Structure formats: structure tokens, C-alpha cells
Amino acid sequence: MNSLRQQQTIAQVAEVQGFGYWSGEDVRVELRPAAEGTGLVFVRRDLDSCPRIPALVAQRVETPLRTTLVSDGAAVEMVEHVLAACAGLRIDNCEIWVDQPELPGMDGSSRAFVDALLSAGVTTQEAPRPQLIVTEPTRVGDDECWIEARPAKRGGFRAKYRLDYGLGNVIGRETLELQVDEKSFCEELASARTFLLQSEAEWLRSRGLGQRVTTQDVLVFGDEGPIDNERRFEDECVRHKILDLVGDLALAGCDIVGSFIAQRSGHRQNAELVRALLAEGQIIEDRRRTA
């Protein structure tokens, strides 16, 4: 039996400041409490009328290497790390006010957002949190990159990710399987940082992107390992992929009870899976209806 939990928001406003990896612009984020049923919503305070952008897969548009949402012409990008923080802590209702079209990259992980949310405190609300239970295997992707949702044997949310850069690559192959809850998210995933190869970083810079980002802000792998940096975990890269998965699955707008297995999947495949699950599954919104 999977009973519905109560929705949660934060107790007070929290703030995070940094700069956008893509634009290089300073960004200030206000995380504000929100009424039950609001969900996670981005608000562009820098635009006239402060347009609201719901964190739902219907608002997602395809952009390289990040998750971007659009509503009525207003966009916000690189949202996956703050969404992962909210989902990992089970913060269901929150207004995320930003003064740029991009979230700050911080240290490349969710840690700054997690710390801000925890400092604000959590308030339990009356309404039940909608839930989608995976009842049969659902898979998207191709033979190389794919992700599959399966029924969870023990309930809750479980993820297994296979990262494969090849045996001759400095990143190599990493696999991690984890039951994700508030404790494991904070301890095992929240601090895992964005990573890329030195060749990828040079390619981005050659196109005027990431000019302000240094090897202290993200894990940049050269031939011998991270440049001017050290791993926080031996398998930090695969942990970050699961962190991204948590953030992308938050675009369902409900709790998902299931077991997820992924191989080399990214933001696009994660979003495709959310769409498939919403199309095929049934969302439970009433406490009296459990499965």
C-alpha cells in the first residue's frame, strides 16, 4: 500500500545568489513559500508582469546540456538542480523568483539550494500530494541511451544509473543504485557536481559560452582526471546523473513510485519518460484511493 503523504512548502523566504554558467550574468534567486496545490513555479521578476513558468514537462523545450522551461514567451533554463533540491527534500509548493533567464550554477550541484531550503524550514500542509504509481515497465530511448521505469518492489523511488564513457576514457564506467529519500538525497546526491571533458569545455568556450566558469565551478576532466579540482565521491559523475534524473522527474508534478534504470540517458530521455508515464498512468489525488 502506498498512502499519500501531505504536501509541503518552506516556512519562510530563502535566497541564493550566484552566476549563470551559460550567460555569465549575476543571478539572485528567492525561494518563497507557496499555497498547497501551487506546485513548483518559476517567476521571472525581471520581466513586465512577472510571468510565471510552471515546472511541468509540458513547458519543457529542448536545449543542449540543460533543462529549459517556457511559458507565454518567457523562459528559464538550467532548472534541474533547484528542482532536484525541491524534489529531494519533498518541497512540493514553492515559488522560485529569478532576475535572469537562467538559474545560477553555484558549484555545479544542488547543495546551495538544499542548504537554502533547509535553512528556511519545512511546513506541512493539509492537502495530499498526488502520486503516480508505475504499474508496468515503460522504456524510452534507443539501444545506446535509454531509461526505463518499473514497478517498485519496496515502494518509494529507486534509481540505478549506468554511466559509460568507455574503458579508455578518464571518466570510464560508473554504476550506482540507490533508494532515494530525503536522507539519501542530502548525503549521497546533493553535493555531486556537473562534469564534462576538457574537450567539451573548450568547445563551449569557443562559442562564447561558459566564459565565467572555471575548473573550480565544475569538474572538468583532462587526461589525468579533474583539472585543479578533486572528486567529492569516487563515483561523483554517476551520482550527478541521478541528481539530474531526480530534478527532471520532478516535471511530472507529482510523486512517482517506481524503480528507474538508466543507461547513458540525459535530460531529453528523462523528459520523454515523464511524458510517457503521464500518458499511460493514473495519478492518485485522494487519500482514500491507494494502490
Keywords:
globular, Ribosomal Protein S5, domain 2, five-stranded mixed beta sheet, single chain, about 35% strand, alpha+beta, about 290 residues, 6 helices
Helix content: 10-25%
Name the CATH architecture of the domain at 6-129: 2-Layer Sandwich
Low-confidence stretches: none
Write down the CATH class of the domain at 6-129.
Answer: Alpha Beta
Give the rounded overall mean pLDDT. Answer: 94
- Write down the overall geometry: globular
Give a written overview of the molecule.
With 291 residues, the protein is of the alpha+beta class. The protein has a domain at 6-129: lpxc deacetylase, domain 1 (Ribosomal Protein S5, domain 2). 22% of the residues lie in helices and 35% in strands. It contains 6 helices and 20 strands. The strands form 5 sheets. Strands 11, 12, 13, 14, 15, 19 and 20 form a 7-stranded mixed beta sheet that branches. The protein has a 5-stranded mixed beta sheet with strand order 2-3-9-4-5, covered by helices on one side. A hairpin with a 4-residue loop joins strand 12 and strand 13. The model has no long low-confidence stretch (mean pLDDT 94).
